Amino acid sequence: MPTLNWSGKDKIVNYDSAVPVHVLNHSYNFGGDTENKIIHGDNLLALKSLLPVYESRVKCIYIDPPYNTGNEGWIYNDNVNDPRFKKWLGQVVGREGEDFSRHDKWLCMMYPRLKLLKRLLADDGAIFISIDDNEQANLKLICDEIFGHQNFCSNMIWKSKSGGANDVNGIACDTENIFVYAKNISSCKFNYDKGAKVSTSYNRVDSDGRRYSLERLDKQSLGYQESLDFPIIGTDGKIYTVEHKNPKVKRARWRWSKETVLERYNELVFNYPYVYTKNYEKEGGVIPRNLLVDERFGRTRTGKTELASYFDNVSPFSFPKPTKLIQYLVDMATNKNSIVLDSFAGSGTTAHAVLNLNKADGGNRKFILVEMEDYAETITAERVKRVIDGYGKVEGTGGSFDFYEIGEQIFIDDELNENLDIEKIRAYVWQVDTRTKYVKPSGDCEEFLGVDDGTAYYYYEGILDRNFLATIKTRANEYIIYAESCA
Q1: How far apart are CA 18 and CA 3, in angstroms?
Q2: What is the pLDDT of residues 221-269, one digit of tens each?
Q3: CA 21 – CA 333 distance, rounded (Å)
């Protein structure tokens, strides 16, 4: 398989393993108890810190990373020259990073983040990545490398613009790409598109009440194969053959093999001179397509107008994605209880889409947003607050979230950070072992962490001896005790 090389790749290819785990400091809760999260901080650190609880649990990931256009005029710096990124690049690849092209820098930024996103993705999950022509070719190659080319699902084409572009010198581009990859394509199933207009006329009704249309068994466009060009004797006793428009140049063939015709003979409909199969109307929609050009998917301008409606009719972003687009993608890839992650959260469109979808179908999907910029609270979280307030007391929307800041490292030089609050260490130990949220328990000794699946957990800052064992009050099937050593 072809792979992409760039300046700095050798330093970055395994860097995700070296990223330290940080604690997530809880700032406030909005709206009540929830699993929804908005995290302010570097998404590389945030993704690594989410692993203890969320590894292989996220059903749908949507990201809209910087397109690397070189344009610094946006509120979202889009040319990877952010001072924090330049500092990080210098630490990881050294001074040579100063001479990298913006494409080298962009690839160094994206590669470890994509590797961590893959670890967070559930085995039956999918990731959607928006991109334009500046980096789409590079992104495709590194995604093939990280996710596996066999797990590539689609390059969805979204019509982002309509009209305008009169000042373009050359060819105007009205579309953007959305790459779709599965964690494991054999396990990943996409839901039907419930809003598509169906051009097929299902004008017949079967004995069981299902509507269907007829589809010819012979096709001109599939490529000729001699083994698929054979006579079929119909139920009327007549002989049916593939229709070649030019008998001297054979192009047509049956869609089914001889074996399939024998096995599914009762499904065939004979109406001389043609053989048909029944094409039943799909319940709940149709198979999703990769061409997203209908108005129902929104345009950049509709995303901007929508965002402005929550900020006194002035959009704080120039090019936000429309909620309808993200809602369609999330609906296609999730069930009602899925976790959805966006680690380039921007204005918070993904959370808005999840809330809308929950409201529409009574779902309980959870969102996790990560945003590095300072507007994480004033725009990202503020938008989500206003969306939730707009719903009022609507059941099933999941209308609440917790806001976090990235805190200190848990380990420094492979040793526990002694400056950390003991409760944060206990929470980390609990999360690593149980992959569930830590809630400080009561009814046992101070070192008690809780019980999960019949196992009681303890974290003791000392030497494990009989005196400590005597303080344990909880009865469990087994015990796991973390201590400095054991007497």
Answers
A1: 23
A2: 888 999 999 999 999 999 999 999 888 889 999 999 999 999 999 989 9
A3: 29
**pLDDT above 90 (res 444):** no
pLDDT per residue over 185-194, tens digit each? Answer: 999 999 999 8
**What pLDDT was estimated at residue 76?**
55
According to DSSP, the β-strands at 366-371 and 339-342 are parallel
Instruction: State the Cα–Cα distance between residues 343 and 44, nearest whole angstrom.
Output: 9
- Which distant-in-sequence residues (6+ apart) come within 8 Å of 286 by Cβ? 192, 193, 196, 198
CA distances from 452 to 50, 388, 437, 470 (A): 19, 33, 11, 21
Element of type H or E holding 219: strand 218-219
Alpha-carbon gap, residue 411 to 419, rounded angstroms? 10
Find all residues with CB under 8 Å of 413, minimum gap 6, and list them.
none
Q: Which two tokens stand for residue 410?
A: 């848990």
The whole-model pTM stands at 0.84
Q: Check: CB of residue 276 under 8 Å from CB of residue 254.
A: no
Beta bridge pairs of residue 159: 175
